[in-house]
Amino acid sequence: EVQLVQSGAELRNPGASVKVYCKALGYIFTSYYIDWVRQAPGQGLEWMGRIDPENNGTKYARNFQDRVTFATDTSTKTAYVELTSLRMEDTAVYYCATRDNGGDYWGRGTQVTVSV
């Protein structure tokens, strides 16, 4: 069974950085991309980009090119996203997702709150 298990909620001050982790279970980690998506309060889903765990190739959405880094650790089958220079408007639930021949799979989301 494919599962994406995400790390717990984070609280940060503006200007700080945060990493959100996503551990893949139940499939070959390097077989499929990991997408990162976020949803701010009252807003729709916003695609941040994706990473290919096989070669760490990345694609970033235009809005995230300067403050976001994706990475993977194949030894632990874990992907993470790091967001730097946090702003209040980065407060959101952050999701990892993947897709295989059987469908789409999402983590449960990680709440990141940026507050003074």
Any key phrases for this structure?
116 residues; mainly beta; seven-stranded mixed beta sheet; four-stranded antiparallel beta sheet; 0% helix
Report on this model:
It is a single chain. This protein is an all-beta fold and 116 residues long. 0% of the residues lie in helices and 54% in strands. The chain contains no helices and eleven strands. Strands 2, 4, 5, 6, 9, 10 and 11 form a seven-stranded mixed beta sheet that branches. The protein has a four-stranded antiparallel beta sheet with strand order 1-3-8-7, with no helix packed on it. The protein starts with a strand and ends with a strand. The mean pLDDT is 96.
Précis, in short:
The chain has strands at residues 3-6, 10-12, 18-25, 34-39, 45-52, 57-60, 68-73, 78-83, 92-100, 103-106, 110-114. The protein is mostly beta strands.
Following the backbone from N to C, one meets helices and strands in this order, namely EEEEEEEEEEE
Percent strand equals over 45%
Distance between the termini: 40 Å
- Indicate the low-confidence ranges by residue numbers: none
What would you call the shape?
globular
Structural class call reads: mainly beta
Biggest pleated sheet: 7 strands, mixed
The radius of gyration is 14 Å
